[in-house]
Design a protein that fits this description.
- The protein has about 800 residues and is mostly helical.
- Helices cover about 65% and strands about 0% of the residues.
- The chain contains 35 helices and 2 strands.
- Strand 1 and strand 2 form a beta hairpin.
- Helix 5 packs antiparallel against helix 6 (about 215-225), helix 17 packs antiparallel against helix 18 (about 450-460) and helix 20 runs antiparallel to helix 21.
- The longest helix is centred in the C-terminal third of the chain and has 35 residues, at about 690-720.
- It is elongated, with a radius of gyration of 52 Å.
- Positively regulates primary cilium biogenesis. Also involved in autophagy since it is required for trafficking of ATG16L and the expansion of the autophagic compartment.
- It is found in: Cell projection, Cilium, Flagellum; Cytoplasm, Cytoskeleton, Cilium basal body; Cytoplasm, Cytoskeleton, Microtubule organizing center, Centrosome, Centriole.
- Keywords: Cell projection, Cilium, Cilium biogenesis/degradation, Cytoplasm, Cytoskeleton, Flagellum, Repeat, TPR repeat.
Length: about 800
């Protein structure tokens, strides 16, 4: 085999690998350390070789880059990107980044002389104005939003004029025009400028170049609905409905709902029923179902009401029920996840939707229950059975409690109690609600023992029920234990910080305990929650009055009369405070307002009469004292005041007639007889002797009566000292002693207190105005000062 193998010889001229080790000595790097020229070039700061005597040439026969040939350097074009340029001459520094040239010159601004550029800038400005208008509207600054929208409209019209001059109509930006007009119309609506809004919408709708302009007829219908122009609203809704395709299903349903509402507003219930029934057949929802029930209720169709109610409770809610939030194992990760999603935004939306559905169903049941059957109780039972057959089973108990509430409104307390007592064996939540209502009923009936029992049952069934705790506090408060009542109210507030009843009652408890600062804190918190509550405002004024701060009390009462401007008690209280402060004019104003709304308040009448006497207008005081005499005809005091006003105003004849009338009604009244004696004497009348005789008899009877009263008091005092061993006489003797201290049978009984029976009448009128003194008047004045029994005229306190 080896005979055919011929080894290569060294002298073979056809060597395939020859020439590979041949290279240009210029590229030899092994001897660079000994190359003087290279070492000198490396040490120089210029990074260049010293000029060589020989011209280097490339393999192609051309000069090497950077070499000098005939005094001209070949440019280094291959390294321009690294900073080497043709301009680099000897003596220049190595600066590939161009730092020696300094900072770059600023960019030249683009000239805006061209019309196209100007229009682009104007279009940008219009868009910015529209955006600013929308932002201002979202921030609540409606006036600024409208101004920006108008400015955008002006700028857009200017843009149209300029564009029409240089471009064909096809180049107009229709989207920008549509946006500007739609925003302007929306801002007009927001500012309740409906006529301008309708005009702007008409511009959009009538322009055939806007493909979707017809949809805006819905907005026009909404404006007419706000203006209560229901026929036009229906017209535009129907026009919009014709232009919206069936692919926009939800929009069509909303428009049909608006049409149904407009028909309800006009009383066309049959047409409204057609709209809502179409909605319930296509895409049933709670609002349309509830409105359908209202329409059937309005026309009185009981069978259709039942059918519509069943359709309402069958509307799918499309929410997951709370079972998904219940953990079925002890996995920590799963429990944390469930806790996180239990109160997220989606679960809140689900709860709101469920709460809205329950409100619609409860309201509908309460509405139709009395109308679908012969009695409301039978109607309620039908509604309860229907609800129990649906997925709203828990609403059945609430309906039963509402049934009891309806019995209460009808003042059928026995039926209400029977209905509520049915819940005593139900689950804890329903039992607590029923027991709370029962406790409240017994509390209103002043049966505190039963109220306390049911309040305890309500609290034991559900300790976290704030209403039950509040009722329990009320029963304790009624028994006089304000400290314990306050504890129950505070526990109710810990369970529900917005329980206004508990907070109000806690303030009352603190007020009763004379803890004024804590009571004030409670009512101030309550005022922040209920700023227009008349009861809260009154309690705040009362507390400041207790704290002897009349200015603050007046401020709160002024806020109170802005809420209840016709409350006579509040107005009289304001008058009293101003009177205490010495402001008679304001006091007179508020007392007059109080009298205008309730002309039977004796305190107000007395103050107004005294005010007119104090200002020397006795004639005007007569009106008020006559009204007081009508209100209290058995009290001689007010009739004597009327007669005294006549006397002091100089009308002696009317005064004499009035005293005679009083004497006929109250023949034993000493004060009336004294004035009759004086007037008859001064006027020279013959009846004077008769009245003198009667006066003496009356004074003697009065003296005997006073002695009897005095002896009776002394006897009762002695009996108390002797003790209970000796009762001080037989039953008949005690009865006769009681009779002795009562007024005579012919004397009208004026008061229940002995103090008022003893007291003699003092004329409450002030000093008389100065008048020309006749002889008779001079004698009367002299008699006034000479007669010590009459004493000085006094003003009522």
């Amino acid at each position: 085999m080896m005979q055919n193998v011929h080894p290569a010889t060294e002298n073979n001229e056809d060597d395939l690998y020859s020439g590979y080790n041949d290279y240009n000595p210029m590229f030899d790097t092994e001897d660079l350390e000994n190359d003087v020229a290279f070492q000198q070039a490396a040490r120089t700061s210029h990074g260049r070789r010293p000029p060589s005597k020989a011209t280097l040439t490339s393999s192609m026969g051309r000069p090497v880059t950077g070499t000098i040939q005939d005094g001209i350097s070949r440019p280094m074009t291959a390294v321009q990107a690294a900073g080497y340029t043709k301009a680099a001459v000897r003596g220049s520094s190595f600066d590939p980044l161009g730092q020696a040239r300094g900072p770059a010159s600023p960019l030249e601004k683009k000239t805006s002389d061209s019309l196209e550029e100007k229009m682009r800038q104007l279009e940008k400005k219009v868009n910015e104005l529209v955006e600013e208008s929308c932002v201002a509207n979202s921030c609540g600054d409606l006036k600024l939003a409208l101004e920006k929208a108008k400015e955008a409209g002006r700028q857009e019209r200017e843009l149209l004029r300029q564009r029409e001059q240089i471009a064909p109509p096809e180049s107009i930006n229709l989207d920008l025009t549509y946006t500007v007009l739609l925003n302007l119309a929306s801002q007009y609506v927001a500012n309740e400028m409906y006529a301008e809004a309708l005009t702007t919408y008409q511009v959009i709708v009538k322009n055939k170049m806007f493909s979707n302009g017809g949809i805006l007829k819905v907005n026009m219908g909404n404006i007419y609905l706000k203006q209560r122009n229901y026929s036009k609203a229906i017209k535009f809704y129907r026009m919009a409905l014709d232009q919206i395709t069936s692919s926009h299903k939800q929009m069509r349903i909303k428009i049909m709902e608006n049409i149904g509402v407009a028909f309800i507003k006009t009383g066309q219930y049959v047409d409204a029923i057609s709209s809502f029934e179409e909605i319930m057949s296509i895409s049933p929802n709670l609002k349309a179902g509830f409105n359908l029930i209202l329409c059937y209720f309005a026309i009185g169709n009981g069978e259709q009401m039942k059918k519509a109610f069943k359709n309402l409770i069958e509307v799918p809610l499309e929410v997951d029920y709370e079972d998904k939030y219940i953990s079925l194992n002890d996995d920590l990760h799963t429990n944390l996840l469930l806790e996180a999603i239990k109160n997220d935004s989606l679960s809140q939306i689900e709860r709101e939707r469920k709460s809205l559905a329950e409100e619609y169903i409860m309201t509908a049941a309460k509405l139709i229950a009395p109308a679908i059957e012969t009695s409301f109780a039978v109607g309620y039972d039908w509604c309860v059975d229907a609800v129990k057959a649906s997925h709203y089973v828990e609403l059945a108990n609430d309906l039963e409690i509402n049934k009891a509430t309806t019995y209460l409104r009808q003042q059928n307390f026995n039926q209400a109690l029977e209905t509520l007592k049915m819940f005593e064996k139900k689950d804890s939540r329903v039992k607590s609600a029923a027991a709370t209502n029962l406790s409240f009923l017994y509390y209103l009936g002043n049966e505190l023992e039963q109220a306390t029992n049911y309040a305890d049952l309500a609290v034991n069934s559900d300790r976290y029920n704030p209403a039950a705790l509040t009722n329990k506090g009320n029963t304790v408060f009624a028994n006089g234990d304000c400290e314990k009542a306050a504890e129950f109210y505070k526990e109710a507030l810990r369970n529900d910080s917005l329980c206004t009843e508990a907070l109000y009652n806690l303030g009352l408890a603190y007020k009763k305990l004379n803890r004024i600062d804590e009571a004030l804190d409670c009512f101030l918190k309550l005022h922040a929650i209920l700023p227009n509550s008349a009861q809260v405002l009154y309690q705040l004024a009362s507390l400041y009055q207790i704290m002897e701060d009349p200015n603050q009390a007046i401020e709160w009462l002024l806020q109170l009369i802005s809420v209840v401007p016709t409350d006579p008690h509040v107005l009289s209280k304001l008058g009293n405070l101003y009177d205490t402060e010495g402001d008679k004019s304001q006091a007179f104003h508020y007392y007059c307002e109080s009298y205008r709304y309730f002309p039977s308040n004796i305190e107000v009448i007395e103050w107004l009469g005294a005010y007119y006497i104090d200002t020397q207008f006795c004639e005007k005081a007569i009106e008020y004292f006559e009204r007081a005499a009508l209100i209290l005809p058995t009290q001689v005091k007010w009739q004597l005041m009327v007669a005294s006003c006549y006397r002091r105003s100089g009308n002696y004849q009317k005064a004499l007639e009035k005293y005679k009338v009083i004497h006929r009604k109250f023949p034993e009244n000493v004060e009336c007889l004294r004035f009759l004696v004086r007037l008859c004497t001064d006027m020279g009348l013959k009846e004077v002797q008769e009245y003198i005789t009667k006066l003496k008899k009356a004074e003697k009877l009065k003296e005997i009566r006073e002695q009897r009263i005095k002896s009776g008091r002394e006897g009762s005092a002695r009996g108390r000292k002797e003790g209970s061993g000796d009762s001080g006489g037989t039953k008949g003797e005690r009865l006769s002693a009681k009779l002795k201290v009562l007024p005579g049978t012919s004397e009208p009984y004026e008061s229940s207190s002995s103090k008022e029976i003893d007291a003699s009448y003092a004329d409450p009128l002030g000093p008389q105005p100065e008048r020309p003194k006749t002889a008779a008047r001079k004698r009367m004045e002299e008699d006034d000062f000479a007669d010590e029994e009459l004493g000085e005229d006094l003003l009522p306190e």
